[in-house]
Amino acid sequence: MSDTPPHLHPLCRYDELTPGESREFPLPGGDTRSLFAVRQQQRIYVYLNSCPHTGVPLNWEEHQFLNFDHSLIQCSLHGAQFRIEDGLCIWGPCLHQHLTALPAHIEGSTVWVDLGALPGQARRSR
Ligand code: FES
């Protein structure tokens, strides 16, 4: 029996995330939404893949969440731009709104994400 709280979910291995890149992950438990992670140097940021403007997924292409120079998260529908470090919209139709951030931490070689912070019903990984 595991001591892992049910809302903690193993997202991926740390070395699967390339610095300066983003990556999409399905949510467990039949949830049709997805998450994405961005790695900057040693830090990992995880967000729900949902634009505050209309609620649609941010990306049109798999794993592509960043602008041309990979300095901001960008919505592919109307171009809203968000800071990577806190998900704040700094340009676009949802200016000053935030992406939904999910706490993440690295333990050993695994990136864990806290799904208890998801809006609506808390999602369980097991
Ligand atoms: S849906 Fe994201 S900016 Fe409009």
Structure description:
This protein has no helices and 10 strands. It is mostly beta strands and 126 residues long. The strands form 3 sheets. The chain has a 4-stranded antiparallel sheet with strand order 2-3-4-8, with no helix packed on it. A 3-stranded antiparallel sheet has the order 1-10-9, with no helix packed on it. Strands 5-6-7 form a 3-stranded antiparallel sheet, with no helix packed on it. FE2/S2 (inorganic) cluster (FES) is lined by residues 51, 53-54, 56, 75, 77-78, 80, 92-93. FE2/S2 (inorganic) cluster is lined by residues 51, 53-54, 56, 75, 77-78, 80, 92-93.
User: Could you estimate the helical fraction of the residues in percent?
Assistant: under 10%
Strand order of the largest sheet: 2-3-4-8
Number of strands: 10
CATH homologous superfamily grouping: Rieske [2Fe-2S] iron-sulphur domain
CATH architecture: 3-layer Sandwich
What is the helix/strand order? Answer: EEEEEEEEEE
Beta-strand level of the residues, as a percent range? Answer: 25-35%
Give the terminus-to-terminus CA distance. Answer: 12 Å
Counting structural domains, the number is 1
* C-alpha geometry: globular
Ions, cofactors and other ligands present here are:
FE2/S2 (inorganic) cluster
Q: How many helical elements?
A: 0
Mean pLDDT: 92
Give the low-confidence spans. Answer: 121-126
Counting copies of identical and different chains, the oligomeric state is single chain
